[in-house]
Amino acid sequence: MLTYEYIHIISFEETNLVGNVYYVNHLRWQGRCREMFLQEHAPCVLVELSNGLALATVKVSCEYFSELFAFDKIAIRMQLKELKQNRITMLFEYWRITNDSQELVARGEQQVACMRRQGKATVATPIPKALQEALYSYVAPDFNIHVISQKSN
User: pTM of the full predicted structure?
Assistant: First the structure.
């Protein structure tokens, strides 16, 4: 099962007074992983973002299994769970990487809605084809698809 992987080394600024990682950072790393995926696999979508496309996060979650600390090296692994109409749901696993082992420390999920800005409003828009194609390389075992096809110009 293929996953998109983003490697991150935790800094002091991501920890709290106790010394462990503040929980909200896991959610930030989901966004960072998603951004790096776009930059590497669907850069044309980044251009669309400056032309009115919006990838609005509508749902996010994270389940924590173990604490993380400054200078821990983690791999955030992303897979596609579902495409449904204009929404994309991704799964995330957070793995602490050491020289001789990997430990699953958290698991999360994020759903984004593809929207288009039209004046002051935003309206649902189909998932860009380039993004769909890039995501298909990283489908989860329980992947579900229900996408409304795009109109051709």
Answer: 0.89
